[in-house]
Design brief:
Blueprint lengths: L14 H13 L4 E5 L21 H10 L5 E3 L28 H4 L10 H10 L10 H20 L4 H13 L1 H17 L10 H4 L7 H17 L1 H27 L3 E6 L5 H6 L4 E9 L9 E8 L1 H4 L8 H16 L4 E3 L3 H4 L2 E4 L11 E2 L37 H7 L1 H13 L7 E3 L7 H9 L4 E4 L21 E4 L8 H8 L3 H14 L5 H13 L1 H14 L4 E5 H5 L24 H10 L6 H11 L8 H11 L1
Parallel strand pairs: 1-2, 1-12, 2-3, 3-6, 6-9, 10-11, 11-12
Antiparallel strand pairs: 4-5, 4-7, 7-8
Length: 638
Amino acid sequence: MTYCDEHKKSPFSNEQTKSVIKEALNVLGKKHLAFISHANSFPAETGKNTGFGTVNSNSAKKLIDFLSGVFTDIQLGPAGKTKSIDASPYTGTIFSNNPLFIDLEQLTTTEWHNILSVETYNKITENNPNKNTNRTAYSYIFQEQETALKEAWENFKNLNCPELKSEFENYKENNKFWLEKDSLYEALTIEHGNDYWPMWHSEEDKSLYNPQNEEQKVQYAKRIEELKQKYSDVINYYSFCQFVIYKQNNKSREYAQSKGMKMIADRQVAFSDRDNWAYQSLFLKGWCLGCPPDYFSEDGQMWGFPVMDPEKLFNPDGSLGEGGILMKELYKKMFTENPGGVRIDHMVGLIDPWVYVSGKKPKIEEGAGRLYSSPEHPVLSRYAIATTDDLNYEVEADKEERILKLTPEQIRKYGALVEKIVIGAAKEVGLDKDSIVCEDLGTLTYPVVNVMKEYDLQGMKLIQFVVPENPEHPYRCKNITPRSWAMVGTHDNEPIAMWADQTVNTEAGYLNGKNLAEDLWPDTNDEEKEQIAVRISKDAPFLTQTKFVELFACKAENIQIFFTDFLGLYDVYNRPGTSGDQNWSLRIPDNYEEIYCENLKSGKALNLPLILKLAIEARGHEFSSHHQDTIKKLEELI
């Protein structure tokens, strides 16, 4: 049996193949194998490429079919509504979903009473400037999707279907607490001619949900009613789009679950302009969330995102304040709609966020600091959980080693948002803390490390970012803990093959090779280990293969693989700290099965049977003799 047949069909189409791979994953103690792909990167069917991917398309079902039986989950990106000038999903809305994820083809069918014409749909696919590439056409589809959805809305209004109309009205009522604000913002973008509220000419409209006194409450409430009357159709159209995407998402997740797969959502740390406007009374005035100087930016990263006011998150008695209630409602919505779980981006932003003064750089000398860890700061000290006695003054405030110690009570205070809001929301919808995937890459301050331990949360181990000089580095194979999610790269990293090309023939390449030889060939003598290390340090394909072996040989119970690494694509999805059309635009090629099989032959794509065989052999001394039978089965697939 060969892993890919001569017709270049899916290697997973054979049930025996799936069974052997699952058996090998079980031997290695893997509970989850997740495929990472943001929804916009999903492929299209021939002749049906609108310019943007979605989990709701027929081609998404085929991708799920392709992956099912081997992969247990699909890790998606943030699903919020993005702006016309910014494709980054990490600046999207926290409640509203992105209308670009609506599958237009479905609206042309009887399921949706043909509310979109086939002619409009065909025109969009035919004129897509990127229809023959694996790139999104963001600006194009942003406009064309709006045109198509407005046509669908007009037809929906005239539709004689009481059941669907009633369902729509119920949806609006059930989601009123966030939908009213988000849709009203849409009306105001028309009223003021732009979608950036700080540029609106009316101070009243900027603060409709942020009155400062009783007089303004009455005045603003009257203005809100005026806008609702004036822009009732705009508001209802916005709600209609959210209703459609809600129904399509539910259908897609049900399909995935019928194939034994779940979807993991992604909660970004950011709040969009729309959210900032709607909930500005809950944010810390004059402060923004960002990153201190790091690997990606020597001046730090000026994200510009608002910071939730700590005094609005919790009341003095520890109960949830207005901000805490809002955050819990957000997570409840996410867990309800995504029973596979939620990945929390930038976990440090919930536990130990770095904040800076609006209009300045996120640097210490310009007043920046950690919101809860700056007892010496003239402004931030009022929010400090750490005390001056807990600090190491020989280390700068932006460094991980800044805090030396914390009491159990302090650790619980740092973790209050996680415990009472995130874990609390998951429990209320019937999920446990293992449904929480914590992106804790990069900065691991003392409070973050201890909160993760206190609540036994699953973090991430990115083996591409291992520091080979440090034998105890947490991303090295022998140090990776079982309760974690391991990966060779994420959407923010170069494919592992590209990393390997840059690493070979360097000192880092040799050190990586030495560590890998020690961890994966434990039974060989020193001379053989040295030979393996040298080969790894000079042979990029062998380094790539060995890093995959490390991934599956490590003791992490959960594995994630980005689609570029799985398919063997030599391209980058996003480069942090940069902007441009290349970011966020890479897609899975429409002929991904053919490409996967071709790249398997050349050793570029992930050859699961081979990698699993080598991973089991690397840990063979830990297993009983039955693992030899699994190895033989894998060999038959290679």
